[in-house]
Each structure stands twice: as structure tokens, then as C-alpha cells.
Design goal:
Structural class: alpha/beta
Number of strands: 9
Shape: globular
Bound molecules: S-adenosylmethionine
Helix content: 25-40%
Strand order of the largest sheet: 5-4-3-6-7-9-8
Strand content: 15-25%
Oligomer: single chain
Largest sheet: 7 strands, mixed
Order of helices and strands: EEHHEHEHHEEHEHHHEHHHHE
């Protein structure tokens, strides 16, 4: 397993029961069935140049991800959040860490901001969380080996990892000083419905499916926020970077989604996959509009002790398009996006083959779909919109 990229994770348990303790159940369903049918992937689009690339710089690493703004907010939170006394560690949770690569700079910056307020030996413990099927070996390699690892930079920083879905309580109540989650909460806990006419719900006119996705998105966001409300310490802060919606109300990546949809149709016409398999294939992600992100907090502005301290939406830069504008190479543009799609969503699509990920056609399916998507995007080069939202959620202080 060592060295295997997070983008090659395979199966996620089909069904997971999350039992909520009897205490403090106000907003969270007592028992929630969360069937995770998707394979979660590390986002290549947020992973810029490889570490040894001549063009690698710390700023491109963050800029590409739309992470710079979120990191600034996390640093601001780290500079003012209440800290526990020295005998107790400062605790930072990273929700949906994947291989940890994109967490290093933001978490490292937060640690530096906290450290400016503490003695050098005040322990800071970071817990990187993800689903159980995540490639935690890759995460530990990143933490141990990456030149930007906070473990090398701070002698009293410690890393731990946790393999459970963030749609349940996974850390002790009132224990987390700072929370961070980037590019993760737009993955739904399950695929709520088959989508009749497209690979992605925001391109579909299938009304029952759209309603099912909207409901699931609301429920998952409600649960994510509620459980973080329990876990954050009084006065703690959580910064979330997640997919928003563009001016058309869609979750972005339009040309790629269409190329995937067209590619699947082509593969079905060529007999590589069946029409029934195409119908089962869907990407269980959503973009959320500002009012959807604020919904759990309505009408009082408070929810599970949390309030929205900051919310902004913006478009992340499409770094593949920027490179295309520089080199004019449409084939490379198509190949880059097809490579991203293969890493990010093909394993999810493959689960819909009759034989699942073990189907004997799985490799051929991925290779042909990648080639078809690359060719389609190269034929009509177009920029992708990448709408993002960043929020800071604040947990109320203990009453004096
Ligand atoms: C696109 S990656 C983002 C990784 C990293 N945070 C970044 O910014 O690049 C999304 C991660 O969220 C994780 N994820 C999705 N749903 C999750 C859940 N219910 N619980 C925990 N992690 C989840 C996926 O497994 C995946 O590793």
C-alpha cells in the first residue's frame, strides 16, 4: 500500500449505521443510515505541480486550490481562538483530509499562528479524518516526508488520523480548538437517487432526482454542521471550503460533466457498457447556494451552539485553462481534465458496472472513457467554472 496515491482508493463500506448518544440530540437524528456508495478521491484539481516540478511553489500549491482565502481565514481564527491551558493540548481537526497533501500548508499556518501565542512546548495535536477506506498510508507518508509537513516545522506538533465519516460525531464533545475542511463536504453521504439524464445532478432535468439530491444535500450539511457543533470547544472555529454554485445554479465543471456524459453514451453505443449501467452511473456531489449553507442556522442564526461568522463565495482559478492559454495545446488541456476525472470520479462510476470495481471490464472502461473525455474536451476547449464557498463557523463561548 505504501506510496499508493489517495486517488486509487477503492471500496467504501456500502452501509454504515451511525448511532448518536442519547444526550444532546436536539438537531441530529438519533440513528442515521448512511450508505456511502461513492469512492472518494483526492482532488487532482486542487493538487498543483508535483513537488519536484520546476514550476512548483508554495503559492501555486494553494492558489490552484482556491485555498488561499480559506487559509487566511484559518490563520485569523488561530490568532484569536481561545486556547486551552498548557497542560491540555491545542487540538486541530482536518475533516476529509485524503492524503493530506493539501492540508499541510493551511494546517501548518494555523499551527504557526497558535504557536505565536503559546510556549514552544505547548502540545498541538492535529487529527486528520477521512472515511475508513481512505489511503491513510499515503497520508502518513505525506506527514512524514513532505517538505512542508508541520511535523518537521514544529517540535511540539503531533499528528493522528481517524477513519470515520464526518456525518457522525467522531471526536469528543467540546474538544476541538480549530476545525478545517476543504473540498470534502460537497460529497454526499450516499447517492440519493439514480439520475435519468445526466452524470451530474446539476445538469439534469430529472425532477424527482433533483429533489432527492436537494434533500440529501440539506440533510448532510445539517448533520455535518451539527456534529461539528458538538465537537468544537467553546469559542472554537471551523473553516470550511466547499463547492458552491455558479451563476446558472450549477456546481461548476460544466464542460467536463458534459464530456463525461457524452463519453458514457459513446461507450454504451460501442457496447463497452450497457444502458442499464449508464443509468446507474452518477457523481454524488452537490454545489450549495449561500442560502442552503445558511439553512441550518435559520431563523435564529444559531445552530448546535454555532453561528456563521463569515461566508463568501468566489470562483477558483482553472489552472488547466491558464496553462492552455499559455501553451495553446488543446490536447494537453483535454488530457489534464480527463486525468483529473479519472482520479476523481471514475472509481465511483466503476462501482455501477455489473461486476462493480472487480468487473473484468473495469480497466478497459476507465481507459476508453478517459480517452473519449480527453478527445471531447480537446475538440472544444473551454474554461471550467469552479464555484467555491468558504465559511467560518464559530462556537459560542461558555456563558460567564
Ligand atoms: C477531494 S478530497 C479533498 C482532500 C483535501 N481536503 C483537499 O482539500 O484536497 C475529498 C476528501 O473528502 C473525503 N470525504 C468525503 N466524504 C467524506 C465523509 N463522509 N467523511 C469523511 N471524509 C469524507 C474523501 O474521502 C476525500 O478524501
Amino acid at each position: 500500500m505504501k506510496g499508493q496515491p489517495a486517488a486509487r482508493q477503492s471500496s467504501i463500506p456500502a452501509t454504515r449505521q451511525s448511532s448518536i448518544p442519547a444526550t444532546r440530540q436536539s438537531s441530529i437524528p438519533a440513528t442515521r443510515q448512511s450508505s456511502i456508495v461513492a469512492t472518494r478521491q483526492s482532488s487532482i484539481v486542487v493538487r498543483p505541480q508535483p513537488m519536484d516540478s520546476a514550476t512548483y511553489t508554495a503559492s501555486s500549491r494553494l492558489q490552484a486550490a482556491g485555498l488561499i482565502r480559506a487559509q487566511e481565514l484559518l490563520e485569523q481564527c488561530a490568532a484569536m481562538v481561545p486556547l486551552p491551558p498548557p497542560a491540555r493540548p491545542v487540538t486541530i481537526a482536518d475533516y476529509g483530509a485524503a492524503n493530506g497533501y493539501n492540508s499541510l500548508l493551511p494546517i501548518g499556518a494555523a499551527i504557526a499562528a497558535v504557536r505565536a501565542r503559546t510556549r514552544p512546548d505547548h502540545a498541538i495535536v492535529v487529527t486528520h479524518t477521512d472515511v475508513a477506506a481512505n489511503d491513510f498510508t499515503a497520508l502518513f507518508s505525506t506527514l512524514n516526508e513532505d517538505q512542508d509537513s508541520y511535523l518537521a516545522a514544529d517540535g511540539a506538533a503531533f499528528a493522528t488520523a481517524l477513519g470515520r465519516s464526518f456525518y457522525q460525531q467522531i471526536l469528543p464533545s467540546d474538544s476541538i480548538t480549530l476545525g478545517w475542511s476543504s473540498w470534502a463536504t460537497h460529497w454526499l453521504s450516499r447517492l440519493p437517487a439514480a439520475i435519468g439524464d445526466h452524470i451530474h445532478i446539476s445538469h439534469s432535468t430529472d425532477e424527482p432526482a433533483r429533489r432527492a439530491f436537494t434533500r440529501q444535500a440539506a440533510e448532510d450539511w445539517h448533520d455535518f454542521v451539527a456534529f461539528r457543533g458538538r465537537e468544537l470547544a467553546p469559542g472554537g472555529r471551523l473553516v470550511v471550503l466547499t463547492l458552491a454554485v455558479d451563476d446558472d445554479g450549477r456546481a461548476g465543471f460544466g464542460p467536463l460533466m458534459d464530456a463525461l456524459h457524452d463519453g458514457l453514451g459513446k461507450l454504451a453505443a460501442e457496447g463497452v457498457i450497457t444502458a442499464a449501467e449508464v443509468t446507474r452511473m452518477a457523481i454524488p456531489t452537490v454545489g450549495r447556494a449561500e442560502e442552503e449553507l445558511r439553512a441550518p442556522f435559520a431563523p435564529s442564526g444559531r445552530f448546535e451552539g454555532l453561528s456563521v461568522e463569515h461566508l463568501e463565495t468566489f470562483d477558483a482559478e482553472d489552472r488547466f485553462w491558464m496553462r492552455y492559454q499559455h501553451d495553446g495545446d488543446a490536447e494537453k488541456l483535454g488530457a489534464r481534465w480527463a486525468g483529473f476525472a479519472r482520479a476523481a470520479v471514475f472509481p465511483t462510476l466503476t462501482t455501477a458496472l455489473d461486476g462493480g470495481t472487480a468487473d473484468p471490464r473495469a480497466t478497459e472502461f476507465s481507459e476508453r472513457l478517459q480517452a473519449t473525455v480527453a478527445a471531447g474536451l480537446a475538440r472544444s476547449p473551454a474554461p471550467m467554472s469552479i464555484p467555491l464557498a468558504v465559511l467560518v463557523l464559530a462556537k459560542q463561548h461558555r456563558p460567564e
